[in-house]
Amino acid sequence: MESAEYHSALAALAWQIELGADECIADAPVNRYEVPASVQKPKPASQPAAAPVMQVGVDPVTVAQEAAGAAEDLDGLRAALAAYEHCELKKGARNLVFSDGVPGARVMIVGEAPGRDEDMQGKPFVGRAGQLLDKMLAAINMSRDESVYITNVLPWRPPQNRDPKPDEVAMMQPFLHRHIELADPDVLVVVGNHSCQALLGKRGITRLRGTWTEARGKPALPMFHPAYLLRNPAAKRDAWADLLSLQAHLRGEA
Hints:
The protein has about 250 residues and is an alpha/beta fold. The protein contains 11 helices and 6 strands. The chain has a single domain (about 60-250), classed as 3-Layer(aba) Sandwich (Uracil-DNA Glycosylase, subunit E), CATH 3.40.470.10.
């Protein structure tokens, strides 16, 4: 005779099916993109056990350094980034977001990572934050069409616009460093906390902003990210002061 527990469990299952449940899931999510650090080859049943055979993985940062270093120009660097297969962000992104603006411009703006609009169009700073950036530049008679070159620390959009992970930034740094070398601007504008961490090794944009420093051998000015200004309009006064400082520096007045 079947137990009462059996009938109770069967009834509960039938109730869940009526509610629309059609598959079982685990308590914790499974990362199906995760690659195991090592693979053990199965041994034939007829042979005695042997020491496990390990597959040695490559270092993504080393691969990035070699690929970036081999790029002789910006087109070559873009191609090297497109061919780089060790960043998981690439698998979920629509487009590679490489740059916008004028290569060789005196000012190079380094943002953090693409958002939804940037991912769709394949260009940095084209959403609401990008529109505000254009207005900020116009206020000091500059534009991405004539006098500014723009890129990001990450060329692919993180899922749900989450913050970049340290390993993602680390493997993209060689490409960013080479990008700066090839673009060869007079001044770097480092926008946002994650950009400051990548180029200055520091965080705390409210403390860093407005103070000239150096990054990759270039004068660098940390500034608030336009997305932050959209959320905190009161900070636009500080951003305006930073823009005036940038303008004065370019004129040789600072």
